[in-house]
C-alpha cells in the first residue's frame, strides 16, 4: 500500500483522460477558432509577411541572373538578409499572437488584456519555445529513430505554452511540469496530441482543397513536370491568389483551433478536483 505521503508527492497519477470531456472540448474549440478576432491576427501577419517576401524576391529577380555566371550580386545578398530578418520578425510576432490566443482560450472575455499578458510572459514563452525546438531538432537527427524521438518530444512538451501563459510559470518550471504531465497523464496527453493534430489537419485540408484540386487538375492534364508551368501561364492569377488566400485563412483557423483545444484540455486537467498539477 502506498503511503499518503507518496500519493501527495505524485499528485498527477491516475486516469487523466477521464478528466477531459472530449466532445465538449472539440465543440468549444470549433466555435472559438471561427471567431474573426481570434484567427485574424495570425492571418494578417502571415499575409503581410508573404506579401513582403514576394516583393523582396521579385525586386531581386533580375540580380539573381548573375547566379548563372557563378557570382552572387550584392542585391541578392541584401535580399537574403532581408528575408532572414523578415522570417525572424514573423516568428517573434507569431509567438506573441500565440500567447495572446492561449490567454483568450482560458479567459475569452479578456481579449484586450491577452496581448499584455502575452507580452509580460513573452521572455519565458520564447525561452521555452527555443529550448523545445533545439531538443526536437537534436532528437530528430538521431539515425533511424529520429522521427520517433521527435514525436516523443512533441508529446513531452505539448502543454509548455499553456503552463507559461495560463499557469504563469517560468520557462524551466513549464518544461518540468509538461514532462510530469506526460509521465502521469500519458493517455490524456497522447489523445490531446492525436485528436487535436488530426482535427487541425482536417480544417487545413478543407481550406486547401480548392488549391489542391487545381494542382491535381493540371497534373492530370499536363503531367507532373509541366503542370506548374501550364498552371502559371494559362490560369488567371486572381484564381491563384484567391485559392492561396483561402489556404492561408485555413492555416490561421487551424492554428487557432489547436491552441484553444490544448488550452481547454490543460484547464480541464488543472481542475482541483482532479488533483493534477
Description:
The chain starts with a helix and ends in an 8-residue tail after the last helix. The longest helix has 37 residues, at 186-222. The protein is globular. Helix 3 packs across helix 12. By secondary structure, it is mostly helical. It is built from twelve helices and no strands. It has helices at 4-9, 22-33, 36-59, 74-106, 111-120, 122-140, 146-156, 160-165, 171-184, 186-222, 224-234, 237-269.
Number of helices: 12
Beta-strand content: under 5%
Radius of gyration: 22 Å
Main pleated-sheet profile: none
Mean pLDDT: 86
Distance between the terminal alpha carbons, to the nearest Å?
Answer: 23 Å
Uncertain segments are 1-13, 272-277
Helix content: over 70%
Q: What is the structural class?
A: mainly alpha
Q: What is the string of helix and strand elements?
A: HHHHHHHHHHHH
Shape: globular
Number of strands: 0
Q: What's this model, at a glance?
A:
The chain has helices at 4-9, 22-33, 36-59, 74-106, 111-120, 122-140, 146-156, 160-165, 171-184, 186-222, 224-234, 237-269. It has 277 residues and is mainly alpha-helical.
Q: How would you summarize the topology of this molecule?
A:
Layout: H1 4-9, H2 22-33, H3 36-59, H4 74-106, H5 111-120, H6 122-140, H7 146-156, H8 160-165, H9 171-184, H10 186-222, H11 224-234, H12 237-269
Helix pairs in contact: 2-12, 3-4, 3-12, 4-5, 4-12, 6-7, 6-9, 9-10, 10-11, 10-12
Amino acid at each position: 500500500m502506498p503511503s499518503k505521503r507518496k500519493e501527495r508527492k505524485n499528485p498527477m497519477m491516475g486516469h487523466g483522460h477521464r478528466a477531459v470531456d472530449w466532445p465538449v472540448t472539440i465543440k468549444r474549440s470549433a466555435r472559438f477558432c471561427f471567431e474573426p478576432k481570434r484567427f485574424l491576427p495570425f492571418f494578417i501577419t502571415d499575409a503581410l509577411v508573404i506579401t513582403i517576401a514576394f516583393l523582396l524576391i521579385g525586386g531581386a529577380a533580375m540580380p539573381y541572373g548573375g547566379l548563372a555566371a557563378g557570382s552572387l550580386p550584392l542585391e541578392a545578398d541584401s535580399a537574403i538578409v532581408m528575408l532572414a530578418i523578415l522570417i525572424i520578425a514573423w516568428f517573434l510576432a507569431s509567438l506573441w499572437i500565440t500567447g495572446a490566443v492561449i490567454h483568450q482560450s482560458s479567459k475569452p472575455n479578456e481579449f484586450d488584456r491577452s496581448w499584455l499578458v502575452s507580452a509580460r510572459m513573452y521572455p519565458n514563452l520564447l525561452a521555452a519555445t527555443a529550448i523545445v525546438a533545439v531538443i526536437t531538432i537534436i532528437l530528430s537527427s538521431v539515425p533511424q529513430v529520429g522521427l520517433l524521438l521527435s514525436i516523443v518530444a512533441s508529446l513531452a512538451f505539448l502543454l509548455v505554452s499553456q503552463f507559461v501563459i495560463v499557469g504563469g510559470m517560468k520557462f524551466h518550471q513549464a518544461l518540468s511540469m509538461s514532462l510530469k504531465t506526460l509521465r502521469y497523464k500519458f493517455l490524456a496527453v497522447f489523445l490531446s496530441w492525436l485528436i487535436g493534430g488530426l482535427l487541425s489537419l482536417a480544417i487545413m485540408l478543407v481550406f486547401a482543397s480548392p488549391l489542391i484540386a487545381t494542382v491535381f487538375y493540371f497534373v492530370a492534364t499536363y503531367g507532373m513536370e509541366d503542370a506548374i508551368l501550364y498552371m502559371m501561364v494559362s490560369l488567371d492569377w486572381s484564381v491563384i491568389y484567391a485559392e492561396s488566400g483561402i489556404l492561408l485563412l485555413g492555416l490561421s483557423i487551424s492554428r487557432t483551433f489547436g491552441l484553444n483545444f490544448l488550452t481547454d484540455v490543460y484547464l480541464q486537467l488543472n481542475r482541483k478536483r482532479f488533483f493534477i498539477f
